[in-house]
Specification:
10 strands; about 45% helix; 3-stranded antiparallel beta sheet; alpha+beta
Length: about 450
């Protein structure tokens, strides 16, 4: 994942495979898998990962690990995201043991840990002072934990922030603080909006990882959420209606044309080309806006995600490394996972590839490295602030039964979120009413919630 533009969008096929395999599995795959590779002899680790820049950097640097660990070969199997999810889900759910290390998202980790599909990393990590598990950003630890056990460790992570073109806002006489409200942002967007420049660009493309990534955080800060503490769906509530109506009104008044065709990439391009003045989205986007080839480098301002009733409203995502319970090379796999998510690895990336390429959002100490602080001066402080302050255990006004912000960590949510996102997109596009969209979404959400009861 380069950012949430792809991290949260994966096909229904992967979910169907997971549910089918989970139904066939006892759910009791042993977490005390073989410890081959820990002693002498040669071992080959098969690592399944996603095809993006950060993971390609790890593949480039694997030779450093292999030199330091003679006899160990790390075989990278790099796939497009949809293919990765389908292949890894099928492997870990069936206990086939094809992979020794897998790249998974924060959405999967607690579910797979609960199912017994992953090795509990807690004892080894906590006993290794050099690894310093407490250095991992607490919210990122939380989303990778189930039953007080850490089943995956972050390779990198992100939250969401408000990004704005300082020149465009200044010309319109608009100023924004570091913690704006959504109403302040909507008012600013109206003042900045012109025939050629949208006041704000927001995701409207259907998909639980497209439209619903930011919209769920808007719903939460307006006081709503997907479920109450009894797994009763709460989509057809005044809070949801207020949030969704606000989102559409803001886009109608000041947003990009045809918002249902916009997600991460489209808004990124709009901001770079001066066709949009503001954008609330993944924090990793700041590094792209500040890249050497970006026409808006040095012209951007950054703030916390806008709020209404809560103190914070940023989302939280991480790509993580985990070890399937079915591996026959547990010790060797664990050693590699610790290396690839360590403080030393982060420094290695900076020294060998470049400090702007350092995996963000995983460790507090990353933001104390002088070279990284200089390379990422425009966006590193706000990223750390937001990622440290979001609360995945209770991102909204009321307590919730799951850990996660812009998603519900149950297998059914992927399909529910995708269908509901299409319903809301139809409302945004003027093809249906808000009441019709939310009542249909309520029924979908309730069917999934009923499966969690009892």
């Amino acid at each position: 994942m380069l950012s949430s533009k792809r991290a949260l969008t994966f096909g229904a096929g992967a979910l169907a495979s997971a549910l089918a395999l989970a139904a066939c599995s006892s759910g009791n795959v042993s977490t005390d898998s073989g410890s081959g590779g820990g002693g002498g002899g040669n071992v080959t680790l098969n690592l399944a990962t996603v095809n993006n820049g950060q993971m390609k950097d790890m593949e480039k640097l694997k030779t450093e690990y292999e030199k330091a660990n003679p006899g160990t070969t790390v075989n990278f199997q790099v796939m497009e995201e949809g293919d990765l999810r389908a292949a890894v889900t099928a492997d870990v759910a069936s206990g086939a043991g094809q992979y020794d290390v897998v790249t998974i998202g924060a959405y999967e980790t607690p579910q797979w840990g609960k199912n017994g599909w992953l090795v509990d990393l807690t004892p080894e990590l906590q006993s290794d002072a050099a690894y310093d598990v407490d250095d991992i950003l607490p919210p990122v630890r939380d989303v990778n934990t189930f039953d007080n056990k850490l089943f995956a460790v972050p390779f990198y992570g992100e939250s969401s922030i408000l990004m704005y073109n300082k020149d465009l806002l200044s010309k319109a006489g608009v100023t924004l603080g570091e913690t704006p409200t959504w109403q302040q942002v909507a008012d600013a967007a109206k003042k900045v909006n012109t025939a050629s420049t949208a006041g704000i660009c927001m995701r409207g493309k259907p998909g639980w990882g497209d439209l619903f990534a930011p919209l769920t955080t808007v719903v939460q800060t307006f006081g709503g959420n997907w479920y109450d503490d009894q797994w009763n769906a709460t989509v057809d509530t005044p809070e949801w209606k207020e949030a969704v109506t606000f989102y559409k009104t803001m886009l109608d008044q000041s947003g990009e044309k045809d918002p249902v065709s916009y997600s991460f990439n489209e808004c990124l391009t709009a901001l770079k080309e001066g066709k949009a003045a503001m954008w609330a989205d993944a924090s990793v986007a700041a590094s792209l806006l500040e890249a050497d080839d970006s026409p808006v480098k040095g012209k951007m301002g950054y703030a916390h995600m806008p709020v209404n009733k809560t103190e914070q409203s940023g989302w939280l995502w991480s790509w993580n490394l985990a070890i399937p319970s079915s591996t026959k090379n547990k010790d060797a796999a664990l050693k590699f996972v610790k290396w690839a998510t360590s403080k030393d690895y982060i420094k290695l990336v900076g020294e060998k590839i470049g400090w702007s390429n350092v995996p963000p959002g995983s460790r507090t100490s990353t933001y104390e490295i002088p070279e990284y602080k200089e390379a990422a001066a425009a966006y590193a402080p706000i990223t750390l602030e937001v990622m440290s302050s979001v609360n995945p255990k209770q991102p909204g006004v009321n307590p919730q039964k799951w850990t996660g912000i812009q998603y519900v960590s149950i297998p059914e949510f992927q399909d529910v979120g995708n269908q509901c996102a299409q319903l809301v997109a139809d409302y945004i596009a003027g093809r249906s009413s808000v009441d019709d969209a939310l009542s249909k979404c309520q029924a979908l959400a309730q069917a999934a919630g009923d499966k969690q009861k009892g």
